């Protein structure tokens, strides 16, 4: 069951990152700028790096590669997403949607806080149950080969 949760979260990250990568860079740059948290250089770097980080983290989670590192990276990604959206809500920024999935799905900031927090809890459970989390993963295959 935990391995399926790992794969599902990986798929979510793949879809989110891939959608941002195939869309014009200005679309996600606008989303990042709408959160009003950084200077132009930070916004440019974040809008270019985050989609790739999401995509590769998702691929590693789905494949079960470097699970320990991938889960930790996903945990920090979701924590960052939660903090970004929470500060926007707290500051009263006029956001109708989070911008997490580009034009694929429109999710309100309040709902994404609930979804991301739930995902953060699941990632924590995955991290503390490495044996069950690594099922169907390539890490297990490579560990057997090296023993």
Properties at a glance:
single chain, 147 residues, globular, 0% strand, mainly alpha, 7 helices
Give a structural overview.
There is one protein chain. The protein is mainly alpha-helical and 147 residues long. The protein has one domain. 76% of the residues lie in helices and 0% in strands. The chain has 7 helices and no strands. The protein has helices at 2-22, 25-34, 40-63, 67-90, 109-128, 130-133, 138-146. Helix 1 (2-22) crosses helix 3 (40-63), helix 2 (25-34) crosses helix 3 (40-63) and helix 4 (67-90) runs antiparallel to helix 5 (109-128). The longest helix is centred in the middle third of the chain and has 24 residues, at 40-63. The mean pLDDT is 90.
What is the strand and helix layout of this fold?
Elements: H1 2-22, H2 25-34, H3 40-63, H4 67-90, H5 109-128, H6 130-133, H7 138-146
């Amino acid at each position: 069951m935990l391995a399926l949760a790992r794969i599902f979260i990986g798929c979510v990250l793949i879809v989110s990152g891939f959608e941002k990568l195939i869309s014009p860079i200005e679309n996600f740059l606008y989303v990042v700028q709408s959160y009003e948290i950084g200077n132009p250089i930070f916004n440019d770097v974040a809008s270019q790096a985050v989609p790739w980080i999401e995509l590769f983290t998702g691929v590693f989670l789905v494949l079960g590669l470097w699970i320990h590192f991938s889960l930790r990276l996903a945990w920090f990604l979701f924590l960052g997403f939660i903090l970004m959206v929470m500060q926007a809500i707290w500051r009263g920024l006029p956001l109708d949607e989070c911008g997490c999935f580009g034009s694929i799905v429109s999710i309100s900031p309040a709902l994404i806080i609930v979804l991301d927090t739930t995902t953060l809890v699941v990632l924590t459970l995955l991290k503390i149950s490495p044996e069950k989390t690594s099922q169907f993963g390539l890490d297990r295959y490579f560990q057997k080969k090296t023993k």
